[in-house]
Structures are given as C-alpha cells and as structure tokens.
Amino acid sequence: MREATFELPAQLRLSGSHPKLELKQVSLWWQLKENGDPDWVVSDLTASIDVAQEPVWLKGRSAAGKSTLLRALAGHWKRWQPYPRSLKFTGSITFASEAIDACAERGAVGYAPQQHLFVEHLSVEENLRLPFAGPLGKNRSPNGDFSQLATGLRLENKLKRPVHSLSGGERDRVGFMRAYLLAQRLLVLDEPFGSSDEDVKKEMYRLCFEWLQDGQARLLIFTSHDPDDAVELRARTLQLRCSTMDKERLVWQLV
C-alpha cells in the first residue's frame, strides 16, 4: 500500500459536534419467493459509527454484502427492487437520531450506487437537476455550481448530452456528482473511483474533503477494492467480517 500523495486542504479541520450513524438490530436479506429461504446479508446487527468528519472505508471480501449494506445506510433499501428478488429489512438505522429514510427523503443523503439509476433519454444536466425539482426538491439546495463541478470532473462537454450516450466511466462520474450535489449530512459512495484516471480521482478526493469541511457534522462512507483510495482519503476502516460460514450473522469491527 502506497503513502498518501494527495495533499490535504490547508483549511481542513476535524472539529465540531459528533452525532452518530446508529444501527439497532438490523437484519437485511434477499427473498426470492415469499416462502423461500432467505439469503442473509446481515442479521441482528447493532453498531454505532461516530461522525468525526473523517471518511469511512467499508472494507470486506467480494460478495460479503457491502453494496446492499450501503444501500440500507443510504435509506434506499425500499427502492429499486430487482424482480423476482426483493430486499427485506427489519430494525432501525438513524443518523443524528433521525430515521435514515426520513433523512434520504428530505435530501440529507447523497448516494452513488454501482448501478446508477438515470432517466436515460434526459440530458446529464437534467438528471442532475431532478432531485431539486418538484415538491420534494423545493427545499433542497445543491452543494456547488453545476458547471464548475462538471469542469473539474471532465464532464463540461457532456452536460447537454443524453445519459444513454455516456461511457461507463462518465456515468460513474455523473453518479458521483449527483450524490455530491444532493448530500447535506451523509454521503454514501459505492466504488466511486475505480473507473477514473488519477487526475480525476484527485479532484474527487478534493471534493470529498471540501464537502466534509463545510462546517456541519457530516459523514462520508465508501467502498473501494483499491486500498490506495482509503490511504489518499485518510479514511477510518470499517471491517465487514462474516462470523459464520453460512452468512447468518455478520460482525462489524472498526480497525
């Protein structure tokens, strides 16, 4: 693992109040049939993550359930139910004592999954502006200027193009940008850096630090198969480990 090469912004200060992201008796499982056997992701999980304005790297082996867990942490477990499977959830997840579903509903959470959900025939800019339109979006304010962010992420010439015309890497950057623009308190990123070159990665790292230092108590949690991303972001590690071979229970550890 290399040493960090990205220089921290001089004005970054990890200070302020520290609310928590809390999970209480959380169980997540995929159900193929109504009476079929559950495919467990986590079972009866209780954990607390202190918001110390430092990024958190959710680490674990492939197929351990990191993406599904991130989806629940972002308050999106009810959305995008891929037929014929459905994702089931019991327990509670709160951020600063507020239910995570409510946080997501009012735009406090920005979420970039690996499989981005866009309105494919609309332009990039129209997709980016959708979370701020209509009754739900009237009280939301974007974190930054659309054009300026697009330029830093090398998307300035893509804003007017339909999303379906983008490459995979461009779609990933649009997904990152949408999550960044929306997130007020919690930013959840699933493999956000893998398809970007080094210069774009550095801009994404810079934006992550800029978002964290806004003055509010914020939490950024991400997954990455590249440990160098965690090094560059000076991230704490949240290890997702399976304590039984049949995945009936997963244990979190902060290391």
Fold and architecture overview:
This protein is an alpha/beta fold and 255 residues long. It has one domain: Rossmann fold. The protein has eight helices and ten strands. The protein has helices spanning 66-73, 100-105, 124-129, 134-137, 146-152, 168-182, 198-212, 227-232; strands at 20-31, 39-50, 56-59, 86-95, 98-99, 109-112, 186-190, 219-223, 236-242, 250-254. It has a six-stranded mixed beta sheet with strand order 6-7-8-3-9-10, sandwiched between helices. A hairpin with a 2-residue loop joins strand 4 (86-95) and strand 5. The longest helix is centred in the C-terminal third of the chain and has 15 residues, at 168-182. The radius of gyration is 18 Å and the shape is globular. It starts with 19 loop residues before the first strand and ends with a strand.
Number of helices: 8
CATH fold-level topology: Rossmann fold
Strand content: 25-35%
Spatial shape: globular
Instruction: Report, as a whole number of angstroms, the end-to-end distance.
Output: 16 Å
Largest sheet: 6 strands, mixed
**Quaternary organisation of the protein chains:** single chain
Strands in their spatial order, largest beta sheet: 6-7-8-3-9-10
CATH class: Alpha Beta
Q: Which value, in Å, is the CA radius of gyration? A: 18 Å
Tell me which CATH architecture applies here.
3-Layer(aba) Sandwich
Overall pLDDT: 84
Q: Which structural class do the helices and strands define? A: alpha/beta
Q: CATH superfamily, called what?
A: P-loop containing nucleotide triphosphate hydrolases
Overall structural domain count: 1
Low-confidence stretches: 10-16
Q: What letter string, H or E per element, gives the SSE order?
A: EEEHEEHEHHHHEHEHEE
Helix % is: 25-40%
